[in-house]
């Protein structure tokens, strides 16, 4: 608990992002990963492999953008740092551990950014006011230099969560909050499609709860029913093995990986 307090204090995030709970969520991610390092290893390795497969299709290798840096554990930074002149990693909250770890690579830059563009306007939003409209071009201006490759890594399903929690805390119904959440997800997908360079998308597709006996108790879309691009690869990520949420049920994620703007998938 004390360790988590210290990490939270050292986590970098804007005031609106803190207000919506992104610093707290970053610490929670760090803490869960510490508890389940071995269980998450295969998922992280699959993510790194797919990211490298995506960059193999890049003709120019000046700048690569990584969206959703988190703990950095699923990013192949050593390889990307050797392949590209600039590796720019975006997240809405940066853990102190990630900032220290990134110093290892002189051409890796960690940037604080909200890739949806809705967090700051939302922090001033109250029930009865028009909601900010998630824009597909929210990512276009992240950096003045356009990227040669974009990787969205285990980020998509997370984008609507805290905005939806926030609007419900302000009194919005679940149904309206979900409509807003879908608009955030769709804007991210349209934004990725709008890049002219190769794009890799690794995203949670379904949440699956399993009993102690291994039976599926519940399976639901992790992206509010939004259609994802056809996956080239998929795998199961035991995100919360039994004991994390309760002693009887474990939660796993069906992760799907796809490539956009790549002429010949191989
Ligand atoms: C499930 S984590 C995956 C991160 C990383 N790939 C990892 O496994 O450690 C999702 C990440 O998305 C970030 N995130 C959530 N909403 C964001 C937003 N609006 N803009 C930028 N990053 C966001 C979170 O801070 C978190 O680090």
UniProtKB/TrEMBL annotation:
Name of the protein this chain belongs to: Class I SAM-dependent methyltransferase
Source organism: Ferrovibrio terrae
């Amino acid at each position: 608990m004390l360790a988590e307090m210290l990490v939270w204090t050292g986590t970098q995030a804007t005031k609106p992002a803190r207000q919506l709970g992104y610093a707290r969520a970053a610490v929670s991610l760090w803490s869960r990963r510490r508890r389940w390092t071995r269980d998450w290893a295969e998922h992280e390795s699959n993510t790194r492999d797919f990211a490298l497969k995506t960059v193999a299709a890049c003709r120019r290798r000046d700048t690569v953008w990584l969206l959703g840096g988190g703990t950095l554990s699923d990013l192949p930074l050593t390889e990307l740092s050797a392949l590209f002149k600039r590796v720019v990693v975006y997240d809405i909250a940066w853990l102190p551990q990630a900032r220290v770890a990134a110093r290892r690579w002189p051409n890796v830059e960690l940037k604080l950014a909200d890739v949806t563009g809705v967090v700051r306007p939302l922090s001033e939003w109250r029930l009865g006011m028009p909601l900010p409209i998630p824009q597909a071009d929210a990512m276009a201006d992240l950096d003045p230099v356009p990227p040669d490759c974009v990787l969205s890594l285990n980020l998509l399903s997370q984008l609507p969560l805290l905005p939806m929690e926030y609007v419900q805390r302000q009194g919005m119904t679940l149904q309206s909050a979900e409509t807003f959440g879908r608009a955030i997800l769709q804007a991210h997908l349209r934004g990725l499609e709008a890049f002219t360079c190769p794009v890799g998308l690794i995203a949670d597709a379904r949440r699956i709860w399993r009993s102690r006996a291994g039976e599926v108790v519940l399976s639901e879309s992790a992206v509010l029913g939004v259609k994802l691009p056809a996956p080239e690869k998929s795998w199961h990520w035991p995100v919360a093995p039994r004991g994390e949420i309760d002693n009887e049920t474990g939660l796993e994620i069906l992760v799907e990986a796809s490539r956009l703007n790549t002429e010949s998938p191989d």
